Amino acid sequence: MQERRFAPNAPIFAMSATFDRSTDSSSSAGRHGIFRVTAAHDADEHASNLSRWNQTYDQLSPGHFAGEVRELWLPHAQVFIERTNRSLRQSCMAWPDAMWFGVPLPSVHAPATVGGIAIAPTAIAVRPGGAEFELRTPEDFGIFGIVVETAEFARYMEEVEHRDPASVLGQREVLSVQPWARARLCRALMEILSEAAGHHAMDVADRADPALFCGDLQERLLGSLVTLLMASSDSAQRATVTHVNRQRTVQRIRDYLLAHAADPITVPDLCRHFHLSRRALQYCFEDVAGMSPAAYLRALRLNGVRRDLKSGNGHRTVSDIAGAWGFHHLSQFAQDYRRMFGELPSAALRGPTGQSRPN
């Protein structure tokens, strides 16, 4: 089939197209081996070309419509690539007892959205079958679609990866994924559809055994999909563990600083004591506290000074309290204190009557 040229923009208009039929209850197993390519020149016709989906399409950008679907059915899955030249609002519902994974192709336009959430170039969309969801797609858009029977997906995850699918997918509509795994999945999907097209074009006598051929394609499909999901899940889990570890590190450092408040501890001192590189220490504090270690150390000390100044102990001077918190250069301390609290340290020494205690 020749590549279809998309028409240039025409005067603005909006066209609404609806396709609403009862979802075919036949199983994917009864369809496996079916490969087809369908083209359409209006959104209404195009909406009807994806088997077993209930869909409503609204064309949002002007011009003649052109769309194509290349679709393959495997024993427990459906895989397709869909291309459209006009911006669309799509109300979609994949067939029941299945999971849909949407992988948009690279685009120069704004990303597609699912449920109002942008599908970034490093993300995929995930929705359960039998539940309606909304896609908004830009012009010149392409997307790979994978629909897998829920039971088959769960079986594969549990037998091959020993993981509960729910723990990997969660409830999110958009999953951030590893770029290398996403690219690998796209290559695998293109190869699967190309091989299916080549197999379909052969004389019947020359074709491989359909069950073996489709079974092999499905294994490759699930393998690439699960590799993507596991890589992303492991990365997210590592990120969570990393954040927890950083929180613990910052808390340990805080406890250490409070226990040694009078010592003029520096960032290099912390690196040596906690066996951390300066960069690792920086990452910890930026992640947990939103500031550098030096800024955190200074803020911790200044707040300690302020609390002691306001505690009402008239027998201690500003210099005494500052020294107890590791500030031994009083002029620099006064500047830092005023920058932090908008007043001089002596202001905190004023009692209820407004009289200053000795400095």
Account of the protein in words:
- Residues 1-25 and 352-359 have low confidence and may be disordered.
- 42% of the residues lie in helices and 20% in strands.
- Strands 2-4-5-12-7-10-13 form a seven-stranded antiparallel sheet. Strands 1-3-6-11-8-9 form a six-stranded antiparallel sheet.
- It has ten helices and 13 strands.
- Helix 4 (179-201) packs antiparallel against helix 5, helix 5 crosses helix 7 (278-288) and helix 8 crosses helix 9.
- The radius of gyration is 31 Å and the shape is elongated.
Main beta sheet strand tally, sense and closure: 7 strands, antiparallel
What is the domain total for the residues? Answer: 2
Would you report the number of β strands?
13
- Overall mean pLDDT score? 82
Instruction: Name the overall outline.
Output: elongated
Backbone structural class: alpha+beta
Q: What is the topology, as strand order, of the major beta sheet?
A: 2-4-5-12-7-10-13
Total count of helical runs of at least 4 residues:
10
Helix content: 40-55%
Question: What is the first-to-last residue Cα distance?
Answer: 89 Å
Strand content: 15-25%
Computed over alpha carbons, the radius of gyration is 31 Å
- Name the poorly predicted regions: 1-25, 352-359
Pattern of helices and strands: EEHEEEEEEEEEEHHEHHHHHHH
